[in-house]
């Protein structure tokens, strides 16, 4: 777990987040006015946040304001984005990628992450290319959709725990229902939100790719 930020740095970072939520592109001058601290003290905090990978500073020349840009790590820490971490099959159990593929510009919280759907076993509800947001931590209730790991492979299915067994059911009747030992299946996240299409997110300007 990352160490908490010192109070001064945390205050500066939250102030930047507040300006971003208002649709502004913050500058160091904006923060000086908002926080009422000396420019030199503010610069020390900003440089420390930059060293920690949470912020990028963009100087614009002598006497002109320095523009501030939150990094992906900064946006995630502040709950300004949901990480898109790869893809997950909605068909037979297959290997899936789990690397940061982008950020979705929607409010997030710890444990939330997004995946791109591959395959059609959850059609017509979840279609190939859709983006699903899942939450790590909670146990799925019977009938909830979850991302699951079995023998190093992943799948997206309705979940029905049955004692020492677990049933994974597709939405598409053309695919078989799977029944597996519960101890062999790891719940990676419970379905929380459907975003219809990765390309639609790009068109709306909600998807930022590395």
UniProtKB/TrEMBL annotation:
<dbReference type="InterPro" id="IPR036390">
    <property type="entry name" value="WH_DNA-bd_sf"/>
</dbReference>
<dbReference type="InterPro" id="IPR036388">
    <property type="entry name" value="WH-like_DNA-bd_sf"/>
</dbReference>
<dbReference type="InterPro" id="IPR015927">
    <property type="entry name" value="Peptidase_S24_S26A/B/C"/>
</dbReference>
<dbReference type="InterPro" id="IPR039418">
    <property type="entry name" value="LexA-like"/>
</dbReference>
<dbReference type="InterPro" id="IPR006199">
    <property type="entry name" value="LexA_DNA-bd_dom"/>
</dbReference>
<protein>
    <submittedName>
        <fullName>LexA family transcriptional regulator</fullName>
    </submittedName>
</protein>
<feature type="domain" description="LexA repressor DNA-binding">
    <location>
        <begin position="3"/>
        <end position="60"/>
    </location>
</feature>
<feature type="domain" description="Peptidase S24/S26A/S26B/S26C">
    <location>
        <begin position="108"/>
        <end position="190"/>
    </location>
</feature>
<dbReference type="GO" id="GO:0006508">
    <property type="term" value="P:proteolysis"/>
</dbReference>
<dbReference type="InterPro" id="IPR050077">
    <property type="entry name" value="LexA_repressor"/>
</dbReference>
<dbReference type="GO" id="GO:0004252">
    <property type="term" value="F:serine-type endopeptidase activity"/>
</dbReference>
<dbReference type="Pfam" id="PF00717">
    <property type="entry name" value="Peptidase_S24"/>
</dbReference>
<dbReference type="Pfam" id="PF01726">
    <property type="entry name" value="LexA_DNA_bind"/>
</dbReference>
<dbReference type="InterPro" id="IPR036286">
    <property type="entry name" value="LexA/Signal_pep-like_sf"/>
</dbReference>
